[in-house]
Amino acid sequence: xxxxxxxxxxxxxxxxxxxxxxxxxxxxxxxxxxxxxxxxxxxxxxxxxxxxxxxxxxxxxxxxxxxxxxxxxxxxxxxxxxxxxxxxxxxxxxxxxxxxxxxxxxxxxxxxxxxxxxxxxxxxxxxxxxxxxxxxxxxxxxxxxxxxxxxxxxxxxxxxxxxxxxxxxxxxxxxxxxxxxxxxxxxxxxxxxxxxxxxxxxxxxxxxxxxxxxxxxxxxxxxxxxxxxxxxxxxxxxxxxxxxxxxxxxxxxxxxxxxxxxxxxxxxxxxxxxxxxxxxxxxxxxxxxxxxxxxxxxxxxxxxxxxxxxxxxxxxxxxxxxxxxxxxxxxxxxxxxxxxxxxxxxxxxxxxxxxxxxxxxxxxxxxxxxxxxxxxxxxxxxxxxxxxxxxxxxxxxxxxxxxxxxxxxxxxxxxxxxxxxxxxxxxxxxxxxxxxxxxxxxxxxxxxxxxxx
Length: 453
What we know:
- It is built from twelve helices and 15 strands.
- By secondary structure, the chain is of the alpha/beta class.
- Mn(2+) binds at residues 76, 358, 400, 430.
């Protein structure tokens, strides 16, 4: 272990992060109001359970050993207004359909983790925004303020912490009800169809795959009888644990387990902007028992990454730490290999996951933030090749996507152009893959990696 990691204090509490520099936190103008909201939040029921958290950690340990593939995806930033049954079920549909493609093509189980039921906070490049000479706080997600450009809307409102918990609970409740009710039953993948893509260029290939899986399932059940495991799937949630007051309030001890669990989500992660070794987020994350992830950008060096691994997973616990690299298609070739080599040389147990979205964001002349499908695919292609060359394994993908008929990323099956963006650009923050582009990317992953042996 590095000397830097040894210098971290051993005493940890859910509040010890408050002694460190906490980046990307809102400025609340009424500390008493904030205290009342956090007190209420700390007494509300948790959103997930400790046994679910530990089950995910074991599944991630399997992924580290090459026995599973992680599919993590969902919205860039959830909004309270999108907490509706059609939007939630469409998010679940696209992840289920992508996982079906991956299971069929990779010939191994897929671990499904949604980027929702808590993804209400977003980091921003600047604390303020100026329009026509008026400067207001930046929009930081529905858990903090509103996107409308008024002083009242942009005020950091502590009551939104309670609303975020409620909307996360509603989302989790509906997802659990769908899965327990047979929505994910492999006997009926037609339940997952999205009407707006009936005439997609990928529809024929996908339905051919569904038919082949159905035939195989019926054959096995003819020989062995009904196979109950195909009627439901395991499904987990994740979000960037950015707003530390919120995360602290839902960090609990539970009976018959040692330590502390973040029970706002199964799988929290640290973003690239808040991953400083001596920062508040690393201090908070090092003490919770959840499996955790860290976004790794092109500026990170081996000398920075190795002490971070030591701090977050000092016991080299299986399933504990996932590294999500997000380099951009133009930089991944130079920036990723030194990190892979260093982690392999030190023998550290991590799960490597590719995020081909965040390093490939650009703005058009008309002001739209977008991503080119070719760049997303290009970064993912290079990631597989670089891991193969280093003797490491790319064990998953992390994607911003939606089941809605949006036009936010250019290219893909319908070759969306810059002119198409204005038709259905709905994201409040970052551009997302739509259903067709998501399914196409799943098929490309299969073609690139082939069956895992």
